[in-house]
Each structure stands twice: as C-alpha cells, then as structure tokens.
Design a protein that fits this description.
CATH class of the largest domain in chain A: Alpha Beta
Number of strands of chain B: 0
Radius of gyration of chain B: 23 Å
Mean pLDDT of chain A: 79
CATH topology of the largest domain in chain A: Alpha-Beta Plaits
Distance between the termini of chain B: 21 Å
Number of helices of chain A: 6
Strand content of chain B: under 5%
Largest interface: A-B, 64 and 62 residues
Shape of chain A: rod-shaped
Distance between the termini of chain A: 44 Å
Strand content of chain A: 5-15%
Shape of chain B: globular
Structural class of chain A: alpha+beta
CATH architecture of the largest domain in chain A: 2-Layer Sandwich
Largest sheet of chain B: none
Structural class of chain B: mainly alpha
Low-confidence stretches of chain B: none
Low-confidence stretches of chain A: 184-201
Order of helices and strands of chain A: HEHEHHHEHE
Oligomer: heterodimer
Number of helices of chain B: 15
Order of helices and strands of chain B: HHHHHHHHHHHHHHH
Largest sheet of chain A: 4 strands, antiparallel
Chain lengths: 205, 449
C-alpha cells in the first residue's frame, strides 16, 4: 500500500476527465462501455453506494478487516498486560486472598481494550486507506461537482493513451451531461496550478 | 393486513437531499429556540449545582451510611441504559439487515452519545474528591501504587470510556457522507468551509466506499458485544457485593434487558416529537413506531421475567435476609411506593403494546414510553436505595430521602441532554441522507421486480 502523500502525487499526476451522468444506470452503462473499449475508469463519485460501479472500479476486497483483527489482538494483549504488570508483577497486593494473577477478574478490561483498539484501527485505518482528510482534492474544482453528493454520478476516466477529442466525444455519446478535465502534473498538492481545470464541454442539445 | 412502508412514496435523490437537509438551513423555529433556552437554563443549573457540590462536599446530598450510592448511581445506571438502545438499533439491526433502521439510526446514536455524557458526570461528582479521579487510571505514581483491577470499579471506568469512544467513532463515521451532503448544499462560503472540514474531503468515491463499508460493518460488529458488556460490567458493581438484593448471577442479563428496554422507550419519546416538529412522517413512518414498540414490549417481557426469577430465588434460597429484602422491604418498606411505581410502569403499562392501535398511535405510544422511562428510573431507585436501607444488621438500617440538590442535578442532566440533542437535530442531518437514498433505490427496484 502506498503512503498517502505518494498516492496523492500519483493521483494528481494522471491526466483525467470527470464525466457527469444523470442517473446510476447511465453511469454504470457508460463505465462498462468505456472499459470494453479499453479506457481506464479510475473511480466513481456517487451520492449513494452503487454496487455495480464499485465492482468495476475497485473489484478487489478491502483488507481493512485484517488490520482490525491485528488491532484487536494488540488491544487484548495490552489490556491483559497492563493488568498483569500492575497487580501481579510490579506490586502484588493480597486483596481478600485472591491470586495476584486472577484471570477471570481480568477478562472485562481485556475485552474492553480489545474493542477499543480494534475500533480505533477500523476508524483510522479507513481514513488512512482512503487518503482522508484531503480537503482540497482537485475533484472539488470540477464545475458542478457539488451535485456528486446530491443527484449526479461522476466517472473518473483516464486520458492517457487516448485522443482527448475522441474520448470527450465518446463520453458525450454515452450520455455524459458534462466533461471536465484536469491537466497532467508531476507536482503534488502544494502546487496551486495542480488543480487547474479546463472549462466545461456542454453537449449540444 | 397491508404493511405500512418504511418510506412513503418514491422520492428522487434530489428531493431526499432537500427534505433531509432543509432543516439545517432554515432559520430556527420559535419552539426550538424556546426549548433550547429552557434546556440551556437547566444545563447551567446543573453546572452551578456541581460547583456547589464541589465547594461544599457530597454532604449536600441525601446520601448517608449505609445508603452511600443513592441518586448518583441511580442516574448513572439509568442514563447508561438509555444509551444502549441507540447502539442496539444502529449496530445489531445493521448486522441483521433490517431496512427500517435507516431512518432512525442516526438520532438513536446521538441519543447514545449524549446519554453517556450525562452518565459519565455522576461517578465523577460522586467521588467526593473528584480531583483524584485519575487514580482510576494506571499511571506511575510516586507511591508506586496501581489500581486494583480485581475490583469492578476500574472495569466500569474502562467499559464506560470505551463505550463512549466507540459510540463516537461509529456515529461520526456514519455522519461523514452526510456532512459532505450538507457541505455541498451549504449557502455561503463559511458554512461550506465549516461543514467541509468535518466532512474530511469525502467525495462519495467508490474506492473509498469499499473500505468504508468494511470499517462501518466492523464497528457495528464490535459495538454489538460491547453494548452487552457495558451494562454487564455496570451490573457487576452490584452483583459482586454480598448485599441481599444485589448478590445475584442474574444481574448482567437482567440489567442489559432493562437497559435496552428503557432505551427503546427513550427512542420513542424523542422520535414522536421530532417527526412532528420537522414534518418527517414520510421518512419516520408508523412502521417505525410499531417496530420500536414491539422491541420495547419484547425487552419489557425479559425484564418482567427477571423480576419473577429474582423473587423466586429469594423465596427458594431460604436465606432470611434475602427473603426479607424482597418480600418485606421492597413491598412494604419506607420507599415501597417507588417499587410499586416500577411494577406498574414496567410490568403492566407495556402490555398495552400488545394492541397495534396503541403501537401505531403517536400520542398513545409516547405516553407508554414516558411511563416506561419513569418505571425504569424507579427500578434503579428501589434496587439501589431499598437494598441498601435494609442490610443484614438491623442496627445498620437507616432511611434515605434525597435533597433538593439531588433532584436539581438529576433535572439538570435532563436539561443538558435535551440541550445537546436540540443542537444536534438542528445543525446535523439527523436522518442519514445517503442511506435513505440507497433504501429508496432498493425499494424502487423491488417495486419493479
């Protein structure tokens, strides 16, 4: 897995088109046809989860659950380890004749620590894998992108290896309401020009 | 009988965005402002009374020896219990793929969070020397002493703080896509920026959703055993003592059932006014009222069965002190009125939910829910206070009555809870927008199929 900064740089270095669609079915159809013709569909931005687009764009299963398992394991060991270290190893204290290492009495905190560590791993593991927070992503510069959270479906189409005009025309033919592009840049997010966007190409009605 | 839908009509994505986020941009209503002001005053009263308690000491309360726990622990257990239904609705019903959960899970989670905040106040102010609260945490002290992890109190500290943290993460993770919706719909750059920061740059990416779904499911799977563990740990505070009325292996399931019972009642108490106030009858339908009422009835029956077991074991054990606590102190003791209130509200009143007319009528179900809340608070009262008033040794018996400071702090937490909740329903989309859109899409596909 790439470091977020490297991944950001790689994401920004790619020349892409953002194609806007009016419905999930239109976006799914277009994405399938694009893939058939050998164009890369890198990502989809949708107001609600669309299973077909996810299968197309990111078919491999997330491995986050493995990290969560490891996180939980570390949590359980930490919880039990602290209890052992405090009450059995560093300062054993006879309270009511109970053994210094009283496993049944140590289970609740072991369990709570396991849940706590696993949950923190799930939350921050998600943020890490998604590369969030990234407040000034170039996508937000795309005209009309605010509707990606409302009622429009955007596809992120790779421009490399394709003729720009032909690809643009193809997207419009597939039902895109608008096509916006970002130019290729080698420099990551700090470059203000990295988020420059070409004007909208509205299809002729 | 035709089943009432979980969503009325077939609204489009744009219509749903508008309907579910409109309340965030509209100027506040007079009723909301008045309630906020009133609950804010109660919250200020709470802080003032806490300051008063800290400056004078817990002698301001009605606590005595042997009734050393009293109001602080009653309120702690009651508030924690209320939180449980929120986690139950969002986590357990998510894992069981119950589609009706979608419209109400967000505010049920918020209810959990704010209820745990109230609950957390009580053990701290009950310490007597609250500035030593950090003694519960293992830290390298100069005297080289550690907390005794064989005691139930450090378990409590670990359970409640874990519960709060996990509830917060679960709630916030679910909120991120909706914060993005609000960010994109925001009028004006400043509101866009503020919501934008909290949305963390979410853009509905399919690549993110792949991880997001796993993270959300994992948190749900972790919250489910957690919710059972928290009240079990709380009940251990009681069960590991030898006091008649407390020393029972039944306590963990009994407490968990009672917690979910009171929590579902609180969900109804909040849900009925909210759907009315914000005109959301098509998203929070009578089906939701119906299902929550059914859960209240089910968990209520488990609680009733636990009462039965407790009394049976008290009789069957042949233990005189145990028998005395249940068959004399609870029924005819100095605070027997509270015991009978609990019995009426927890055993008789929920039986009204056998009638679908009661479950589906907003005002009727609201009345039942409020009585259940009263009943569950009374249950915590008689369990804690009456058991302590009548210990083994007759010479140690002593009556208990709360002072105005006790009542003031309790009323203050009710106000503080309502204050936080009112802010939440105004400034955050309290019905999950993207999940409701997904549900609308699924329902539309089922309709076509």
């Amino acid at each position: 897995m790439l470091e977020p900064a490297k991944r950001h740089a790689r994401e920004l270095a790619r020349p892409v088109f953002y194609a806007e669609f009016a419905s999930d079915t239109a976006a799914v159809d277009a994405a399938r046809r694009l893939v058939e013709r050998g164009h890369g569909v890198l990502d989809a931005f949708t107001p609600r989860p669309v299973a077909a687009l996810e299968e197309l764009v990111a078919p491999e299963r997330s491995t986050l659950n493995r990290s969560v398992f490891v996180g939980g394991l570390i949590g359980a060991c930490t919880g039990l380890g602290i209890e052992w270290a405090c009450n059995a190893w560093d300062y054993p204290l006879n309270v009511g004749g109970r053994p210094p290492f009283a496993l049944p009495a140590y289970i609740p905190i072991t369990f709570e620590a396991m849940v706590l560590f696993a949950s923190l791993t799930a939350f921050f593991g998600f943020l890490h894998r998604a590369g969030l927070p990234w407040l000034a992503h170039p996508a937000f510069e795309v005209p009309g992108f605010e509707r990606a959270s409302n009622d429009r479906f955007f596809l992120l189409v790779e421009r490399a290896g394709a003729n720009d005009e032909e690809l643009q025309a193809l997207l419009v033919e597939l039902g895109a309401l608008s096509v916006s592009g970002t130019p290729a840049r080698e420099t990551p997010r700090r470059d203000p020009d990295a988020v420059a966007v070409t004007p909208n190409t509205e299809p002729a009605e | 009988m035709i089943e009432t839908p979980v969503l009325v009509g077939a609204p489009s994505d744009a219509e749903l965005t508008l309907a579910l986020t409109r309340s965030v941009w509209q100027p506040p209503r007079k009723a909301w402002l008045a309630l906020l002001g009133l609950s804010g005053l109660f919250a200020l009263g709470l802080f003032a009374l806490i300051a008063y308690t800290f400056s004078e000491g817990v002698g301001l309360w009605g606590n005595n020896i042997p009734v050393a726990w009293a109001f602080a622990i009653i309120n702690f257990v009651w508030w924690i219990g209320i939180g449980h239904a929120g986690t139950f609705i969002s986590a357990v019903l998510l894992l069981l793929e119950q589609s009706w959960r979608t419209s109400i899970n967000r505010f049920a989670e918020a209810m959990t969070l704010f209820a745990v905040v109230q609950a957390g106040i009580f053990p701290l102010i009950h310490l007597g020397r609250p500035w030593f609260a950090y003694w519960l945490v293992p830290y390298p002290a100069t005297m080289e002493l550690w907390p005794n992890f064989k005691s139930a109190l450090p378990w409590d500290a670990a359970a409640v703080s874990t519960y709060f943290t996990v509830s917060l993460l679960f709630w916030y993770l679910g909120l991120i896509p909706d914060l993005a919706v609000v960010r994109d719909a925001a009028p004006g750059i400043w509101r866009r920026r503020i919501y934008g920061v909290f949305a963390l740059g979410w853009r509905g990416s399919a690549r993110h959703l792949r991880h997001y779904r796993i993270a959300y499911g994992m948190l749900a799977g972790l919250a489910t055993p957690l919710v059972l563990s928290v009240h079990s740990v709380v009940s251990s505070d009681f069960a590991i003592t030898i006091l008649p009325g407390w020393h029972s292996t039944l306590f963990p399931p009994y407490f968990v059932a009672g917690a979910i019972f009171s929590g579902f009642a609180m969900v109804t108490t909040l849900m009925v006014p909210i759907r009315r106030l914000f005109g959301l009858e098509h998203v929070i339908t009578t089906r939701h009222l119906d299902n929550v009422a059914k859960f209240t009835l089910l968990t209520g029956l488990i609680v009733d069965f636990s009462y039965l077991c407790e009394f049976y074991i008290a009789w069957y054990s042949g233990e005189a002190p145990e028998y005395y606590t249940f068959f004399h102190a609870f029924i005819t003791g100095p605070n027997a009125g509270i015991f009978w209130t609990a019995m009426v509200c927890n055993v008789l009143v929920p039986q009204l939910y056998w009638f679908s007319a009661v479950r589906r009528h907003p005002i009727a179900t609201l009345c039942v829910a409020i009585l259940v809340n009263v009943g569950m608070w009374s249950e915590r009262f008689f369990l804690i206070v009456i058991s302590l008033e009548r210990e083994y040794s007759v010479s140690a018996w002593r009556a208990y009555s709360p002072t105005w400071v006790d009542w003031g702090i309790f009323a203050g937490t009710l106000g503080f809870f309502l204050f936080l909740f009112l802010l939440f329903i105004k400034y955050v989309p309290f019905v999950p927008v993207s999940e409701v859109k997904e549900l609308a899409r699924e329902l539309a596909e089922e309709g076509h199929a």
